[in-house]
Structure formats: structure tokens, C-alpha cells
Amino acid sequence: MLSPPDSSCPPELHQSLLKLSLAGLLLLRPVSGGADGTAVMDFSLGYSNPATGLLLARFPPVEAAALKAFCCRVFDTSVPVQHNVH
User: Fold this and answer.
1) Among positive and negative, which fits the CA dihedral 56, 58, 62, 66?
2) Do residues 78 and 70 lie in contact, with contact meaning Cβ atoms separated by under 8 Å?
């Protein structure tokens, strides 16, 4: 479940809200590798809502590589930022 442990909202409601959201939502999990085994080499898909298909269709392969680099930067720095598509 994606509900925070201290949430008073039932988990079913969170799942319904994620499914109905018009915004594409991705939960990416880092895949480590490299010589020392700590560098983020890629990301695996942990969760996506139905609107994500529309989001991913808008990213040609060139932009997908830039998005991966963006995700690696965010993961390495732990600084929350937004990636605007428009």
C-alpha cells in the first residue's frame, strides 16, 4: 500500500485517488550498480497510475534519457524538485 503509516485515511481511498488522478504518477525505485555498487544506474517502476500512459507517450527516447538523468540527480542530492513537461 502507498498509504503513510500515520494516515487516518483508509488505504482504499488513497488507491482510488491515485487511479482517478488526471496527473501521471510514477513511483520509481533506484537500481544500484557500478564498481562500488552504490551508484544509481537506472530505475525500476514501482507503481504507475492509469494517466501515466499518456505521460510516457509524450516522452520521445531523447527526452526519456534526460528524464533518467534528472531522476538520478534528484536521488543523489535528495533535493525535491519538479520536472515540468511544458
Assistant:
1) negative
2) no
Provide the pLDDT confidence category of residue 1 given band limits of 50, 70 and 90: very low
- Specify whether the CB–CB gap between 42 and 28 falls below 8 A: no
pLDDT tens digits for range 5-44: 555 667 777 778 777 888 777 788 888 887 777 788 888 8
Tell me the C-alpha distance between 61 and 47, whole Å: 21
Q: What are the residue boundaries of the structural domains of the chain, listed by start? A: 24-77
SS3 state of residue 24: coil
Q: What is the pTM assigned to this prediction?
A: 0.60
**All three cell numbers of 35:** 564498481
